[in-house]
Amino acid sequence: MNWSISFEPLISWPLLALVLVPLALLALVGLWFRQRGGVLRFVALLALAAALFNPVFLNEEREPLKSVVALIVDRSQSQDIGDRTKQTDEALAGLQQRLGRFKQFDVRIVEAGKSDAAEERTETRLFGALEGAFRDVPPSRIGGAIMITDGEVHDAPPGAPDFNAPLHALITGNDHEKDRRIRFENAPRFGIVGKPLDMTYRVISTENETGPVDVRVSVNGEQVSVEHATVGQAMPLQVTIPGAGRNIIELAIDREPGELTDTNNRAIALVDGIRENLRVLLVSGEPHAGERTWRNLLKSDASVDLVHFTILRPPEKQDGTPINELSLIAFPTRELFVEKIKDFDLIIFDRYQHRDVLPILYYDYISEYVEKGGALLIAAGPEYAGEASIARTPLMSALPAMPTGEVVEKAFYPRLTDLGQRHPVTRGLDGSATEPPHWSRWFRTIGVQNPQGEVVMKGADNRPLLLLDRKGEGRVGMLLSDQGWLWARGFEGGGPHVQLYRRIAHWLMKEPELEEERLTAEGRGMVLEIRRQTMADNPGPAQIITPSGKTVTVKLDKSEPGVFLGSVQTNEIGLFQVANGDLTALAHVGPVNAPEFADVISTENRLKAPAEATGGSVRRLASSTALGSDVTLPSIVPVRSSGEASGSDWIGLRTTDDSVLKAVSRVPLFGGFLGLGLLLLAMGSMWYREGR
């Protein structure tokens, strides 16, 4: 019960002052001059004032509020090491039981550090979880916080946290833990394909040991070398980037006896391989309307170095002008097709015909160049069907189709074949989804027979229009029309010439993203996403080997022609191996070299400063140094805000003085007959004294 007095005047305060102040002055004057009945007049005035002030006794019925205590439980992956999970569970159960005995505490349990598929978990952030637990609690009601953790907390403040209550940390693990780890000191994010990349790494031991250790170096899952490193020293490393796109460089060391975990015995670096500028040789047989289409496209690509020659003066064109008076550049045939042919990534013959500009032997060199991994594109015009066709040279062994000698002059819409709808070069071309396609017509097709490879586009009368073929280690493309420039000029709305031509060129130069059969995997947050490109109708499920060695089968669903997708959510961080048919892929899920595993030794140091700043404490749950020792919990003591909050074997939590009002009882002092009687008694006494 809480008693208090309140005044509820019967008239307003200004009017009350207007009435009582003059009477008070008269009463005080009477007392000063010791007039007869002055005391009684003063008492009567006090009685009148009390009646007008109307004093009321209030009895408030209040219910005390509970102090809010946050119990933060670290569920990060480092807590899965050794006996830490067992210690955490035992400590949690014991604290819940002990806190349950105190009715003045409202306990909020928050588990932090769990895997989240929406975002990558890079750190253990317990103070963020603590802030969330107290977000709706007034500062006066915060009783304190208890953290059960291994001490590897990455958002610990340097001083006191933002609340005035004790913070206690109970540390899992043991004080004799041993661990050794490896990390990259310098790992560039980009590297040039085929060139060595300089990196540095370091092997670190908790016991400050020195000495040699073998480090296995793997690139995209294949071991490439074994390096000999010295523990504690920064070591140089050179790795050759094998291909364009994402490359995974992995360093690994063996697990030592008694080591806490081997999770951090591996270090990962993700390096994007970048090709040096691709060198393309474009040879135009003669000037024509579409000649600059190829030139402009290739020149606009910053990754392409273009060498372009146009045969303006073939040998049969003799007009008597002396050679030394011509401003034309002589075609350097030997330099291009003998000495430097291997330097080119792609050779394009644009409406080229055999006119003895190239010696017949050089066509053999070009065929050999393709067989050994080069790329050749034939942009055919009417010349390909004529007597001087390059198909009548030794180059014929590298060509995917022989001409029939027919040139079909007929309007048509270029269309994708069934294969073309799935092939990465033509799949999803802008405008291809409608019938007829949403692009302009062409008017010429070169007839061929017995086409090899894949026919991905068709022309008039369903004749082959675009052929893609492999010859030995190289690739050959053939575009059987010279009308692509109509798209570039915007005829009838134009068409996706840039998209098509660029894809053709990059497929010929073996761009990984344009491979027909390709398996890729990528980690997004804690989700492994799988993408399968294939020309088959159904590639079947994918098999996944997790970092812990478990095998998981994932169904791949068709997302568009030639593309199948699958995904799996996981709580493991590390390298995943994905296989489908003969193809394999590697993917890293979760943060690369996460701080969670950078240092897994349990520690009291990170939480000591914020705990001591609040009057709290940091102590280990396992008091002995024997691995797997039992948990020892401190006693819990409710303390006032000014008292000590920790001792050798106990921890204190603040209690609050806050309460909530439930009901109020009112007892007026001058209310009813009692008040009237007191007032009449005072007035009557004054009147009686005045009458004598």
Automatic annotation (TrEMBL):
Residue ranges of the TM segments: 12-32, 39-58, 669-688
Membrane as UniProt keyword: yes
InterPro entries cross-referenced by the UniProt entry: Class_I_gatase-like (IPR029062)
Taxonomic superkingdom: Bacteria
Annotated keywords: Membrane, Transmembrane, Transmembrane helix
PANTHER family per UniProt: BLL2462 PROTEIN
Name by which UniProt lists this protein: Glutamine amidotransferase domain-containing protein
Lineage: Bacteria, Pseudomonadati, Pseudomonadota, Alphaproteobacteria, Hyphomicrobiales
